[in-house]
Amino acid sequence: MQKSFTCRQKRYTKTTLVRHTPEYVKILSKQARVYYMEKNYKRAKANIEEALNNYEVYIKQIFPALSEREKAKYWNTIKGDFEFYNTLAFSQLDDFKDLSSKVYDYQLLTKALLLSASIKVRERILNSTDESLKTSYNLWIEKKEQLTNALSMSVQQLADNGYDINLMTAEAEKLEREISQKSELFGQNFDNKKIKYTDVQKSIAKNEVAIEMVRYRHFDHTFTDSVVYVAVYVKNDNARPKAIILPDGHRMETRYFSNYKNSIVGQVQDRYSYKVFWEPIQKGIGTATTVYLSADGVYNQINLEAIPTPDGKYIIDNANIVLVSNTKDLYLNKIKKSTTASNTATMFGNPKFYLTASTGDIPALPGTEKEVEELQGLLKQRSYSTDEFVESTATEDRLKQLSSPKILHVATHGFYTPVAEQSELEQLTESEAAMADNPLLKTGLLLSGAGDIFNETKYNYNISSGILTAYEAMSLNLDQTDLVVLSACETGLGKIENGEGVYGLQRAFLVAGAKVLIMSMFKVDDEATQKLIVNFYRKWLTTNNLRQSFIDAKKELRVEYPAPYYWAPFMMIGQQ
C-alpha cells in the first residue's frame, strides 16, 4: 500500500508541480521518509538532500520578507527535515557514510538561524546610509514599545486609549517585514557567500578545534522520544569533519542533567558528568589549546568547565572552551572590520526593589553596590568615563537610555517565569495570555521598583517601570558595546529552543549588539561573585585579554572558594 502511494505521488509531482515550489519540496521530504522506511536508502538520501537544498534557497529568499514571529513559524515547519537527515547521516549504514561534512554545513546554515537573522538586520540598518530605513527602524522600535505597554493594560484602559492589540501587532509586523526586506537588499552586495566547514577550518589555528553540537530526535517511521547528540568537529588539517555520537540524549537531558545541577548546588561529588558530557568528546578530539563550542540542547544549560575530571581537577584546568552561537562566527569575525569604542562604562547595582512597600521576598543586594564602587575606581584609573546608578537611581528607564557604552555592567537579580499550567492560563486575560506565551517577556532583569510590580502581578511586568524584559532588552543600543556583564543570579536562564539556544537575556543582549556576554546560570553567592567580578576586571584592564582574564579570575577564586557552587554559575559567550 505504501509503495502505491509513493508511485502515485511521484507521478503527481512530475506532472503537476513545478520543481522548487514549496509543495514540490514538501512531497520530496515525505517521499524521503517513505523510501527510508522501505530501506531504499539511496532514494531517501537523494530526496531529502534535494529538499534541504531548496530550503537553503528559501531561507535566503523568503526570510527577508518575514517578521521574527513568522521566521520562527516557518523554521518550525522545516526543521524536522534537518533532523531526519541527521538520522540518515549517523545511522551507521553503508549508504550514508561520511555525511558529516554536509551535516556541519547545514549546522552553519541553520544553527541560531533566527538569532543571526535578527543581528544581521540590525547591523545592516545601523551601517546603512539610507536615512529612511533608519527612520523606519526607529519607528518600529517605538511601535514595539507601545505594544509592550498596551499588553500591560486592562480591557478598560485599552478602550480608554483606543488601543487594539491585534491591530497594533499587525502594524508592527508589517513594518518589521518591510524593514527586513529593505535591509536584505542593502546587504546583498557583501554576504552572498555560503559559509562552509572549510571556511571555519581556515579561521582556527593548527592546534584548535571547532565543534558544532547537534541534537536531534531519532526517526523510526516517525520521530521518537529517543534523543541523540553528536559532536561534529573540524581542525585546521584539511580533513573532513568527524563525528562523535552520544546516543543517550534523553537521559543526558533528564537524569544526568539533574545530577550535574544537584552536585553543584548541593556541593556534593559529581560521579557522572565527566563520563556523560565530556569524556567521549575529549577522547575524540584529542589535545587542543582552544575548543570553540557551539552548544545545543542540554549543553546550553551546563558549564563544562565546572565538571570534575578523574585526575582530581576540573575541565577548566585542562581545556580552554570558548562558547559561540555558531562556529561560522569564527570566520565572520575574521573578515569583519573592527571598530574601536571610546572608553565608557555604565554600571547598575543594588536597585531599590521596593519603593512603595517596605519589604518583600526579593533580597537586597548591598554587595553589588560595593562591587560597582570598586569597579568605578578601577575603570577611572584606566581613564574610563563612567556612569553609576545604584539604589533608587538604578531604574529601567536609565537602562533604556543607554548609548552604546564600551562596558555595560548590571549587578542585579535576573528572573525566569516557567511555563504556566493550562488551568492557570485559562484564567488569564487576552493580554496576560499573550505575555505568558512569549519567552522573551517571561525573563528579565529586576531594577528599582521591581518588587512592587511582583506584588501586583504574576505576568504583567510592564504595568510600571522596574523590570527590563528580554523582549525590551533586544532594543537596547549596544552596537559599540564590547562587554556586557550580568553579575547576579540566574541571568542566563530562559526557554531552551533546540538549535537556537536560550530564549532569554542571552539572546536579547546579543541581538542588541553585545560582542561578549558574561551571565550566570543559577543562584550565586554575593560575596564570592563580587570578588570574582572585580578580579576579572582588574586582570582584563591590565592584559586586554577577556577570555584569559575570566579563566584566571575563576582559578584564583577557587583558592578561597574551591567548590564549583561559587565560581561555576558564570559563563562567557562570544569572542573579543
State the main characteristics:
5-stranded mixed β-sheet; 6-stranded mixed β-sheet
Task: Summarize the helices and strands and which ones pair or pack.
Elements: H1 2-16, H2 22-37, H3 41-61, H4 68-89, H5 100-110, H6 113-127, H7 131-151, H8 155-161, H9 165-187, H10 197-203, E1 208-220, E2 222-235, E3 242-246, H11 249-253, H12 255-265, H13 273-285, E4 290-294, H14 315-318, E5 321-324, H15 328-335, E6 344-351, H16 366-381, E7 385-391, H17 396-400, E8 407-411, E9 414-416, H18 422-425, H19 430-437, E10 443-446, H20 450-456, E11 467-469, H21 470-473, E12 483-486, E13 494-497, E14 501-504, H22 505-511, E15 516-520, H23 526-543, H24 546-560, H25 564-567, E16 570-574
Parallel strand pairs: 1-4, 4-5, 6-7, 6-8, 8-12, 12-15
Antiparallel strand pairs: 1-2, 2-3, 9-10, 10-11, 13-14, 15-16
What does this structure look like?
- By secondary structure, the chain is an alpha/beta fold.
- The protein has 4 domains: 2-97; 128-187; 197-332; 338-574, Rossmann fold (3-Layer(aba) Sandwich), CATH 3.40.50.1460.
- The protein is 50% helix and 16% strand.
- It has 25 helices and 16 strands.
- The chain has a 6-stranded mixed sheet with strand order 7-6-8-12-15-16, sandwiched between helices. A 5-stranded mixed sheet has the order 3-2-1-4-5.
- α3 packs antiparallel against α4 and α6 (113-127) packs across α9 (165-187).
- The longest helix has 23 residues, at 165-187.
- Mean pLDDT is 83; it is low at 1-17 and 186-190.
**Which structural class matches the secondary elements?**
alpha/beta
Which CATH first-tier class of the largest domain would you pick? Alpha Beta
**Total beta strand runs:** 16
pLDDT averaged over residues: 83
CATH fold node name of the largest domain: Rossmann fold
Multimeric organization: single chain
Helix content: 40-55%
Distance from N terminus to C terminus (CA atoms, Å) equals 58 Å
- Per CATH, which architecture of the largest domain? 3-Layer(aba) Sandwich
Total domain count:
4
Tell the overall outline: globular
The helix count comes to 25
